[in-house]
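User: Hi! I have a protein structure encoded as tokens and I'd like to know what sequence might fold into it. I'm fairly new to this, so please keep things simple.
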């Protein structure tokens, strides 16, 4: 698919801040199944600092805003061509050892319920069939948590979401990551975009899912919220140990102020080039 992305993040501060520094994980990488055609990040008033690619293969850009800062608008536009690789991540340049992703984090700490879910899911699956075990865990999580927006918050842990049986994509991913790590399957959180369809025009489509490392195959994506592996409707943006670690924008501020935040993400098919525009 040839997809167009518009991702707008607006911050408003009741009291002006003396400074704001942000770390952006807002630039997708090109790899097998995902080719970035154009990508532009605009943030008026920002001074661009260090830019580097971390061990997970994600581009990190730092931006600084000098005070007084009353508002910040970060506007991302771009086009990406995607193909279906059945969720398998190939050709993605990264140097981090997959075993790094066995480490527990606050949002992925397992409890007895997660352990029981994982044990039941893997009971009849051979230990040697790692891909089948990953699929079994994803299926179990998809059945255990009903997709229900507004039932959880950003700081809700996977264990809390599983206990109440309701949540959003972040919660599905955190439970799956926790369950996988319990059985020595490295797992991580992925942030990105999902094109949901054209029936009602562009759709808000910020999304998150999990990747599990399968020896001999590599990283494989699992979207338990939609009971599938990522396909050509998905754009992969960045990854981390949990959702907060993979956030597209993270920041620190100078001063104290009540913050208003608005995020809009719209995905639509890119318009085909006119004949006169072709090279």
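Assistant: Happy to help. Inverse folding works backwards from shape to sequence: for each of the 279 positions I chose a residue that suits the local structure. Here it is:
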């Amino acid at each position: 698919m040839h997809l167009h992305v518009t991702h707008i993040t607006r911050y408003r501060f009741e009291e002006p801040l003396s400074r704001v520094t942000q770390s952006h994980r807002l630039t997708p990488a090109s790899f097998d199944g995902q080719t970035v055609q154009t990508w532009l990040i605009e943030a008026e008033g920002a001074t661009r600092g260090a830019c580097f690619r971390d061990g997970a293969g994600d581009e990190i850009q730092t931006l600084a805003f000098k005070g007084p800062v009353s508002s910040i608008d970060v506007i991302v536009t771009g086009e990406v061509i995607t193909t279906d690789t059945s969720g398998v991540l190939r050709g993605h340049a990264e140097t981090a050892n997959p075993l790094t992703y066995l480490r527990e984090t606050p949002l992925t700490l397992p409890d007895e319920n997660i352990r029981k879910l994982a044990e039941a899911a893997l009971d009849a699956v051979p230990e040697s069939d790692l891909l089948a075990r990953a699929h079994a865990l994803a299926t179990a999580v998809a059945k255990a948590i009903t997709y229900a927006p507004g039932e959880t918050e950003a700081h809700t842990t996977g264990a809390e979401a599983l206990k109440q049986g309701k949540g959003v994509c972040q919660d599905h991913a955190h439970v799956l990551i926790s369950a996988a790590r319990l059985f020595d399957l490295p797992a991580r959180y992925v942030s990105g975009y999902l094109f949901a369809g054209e029936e009602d025009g562009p759709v808000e489509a910020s999304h998150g899912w999990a990747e599990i490392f399968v020896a001999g195959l590599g990283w494989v994506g699992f979207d338990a919220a939609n009971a599938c592996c990522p396909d050509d409707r998905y754009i992969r943006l960045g990854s981390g140990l949990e959702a907060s670690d993979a956030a597209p924008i993270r920041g620190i501020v100078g001063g104290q102020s009540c913050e208003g935040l608005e995020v809009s993400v719209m995905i639509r098919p890119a318009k085909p080039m006119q004949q006169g525009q072709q090279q």
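A useful reference point when you look it over: The first helix runs from residue 112 to 122. Feel free to ask if any position seems puzzling.
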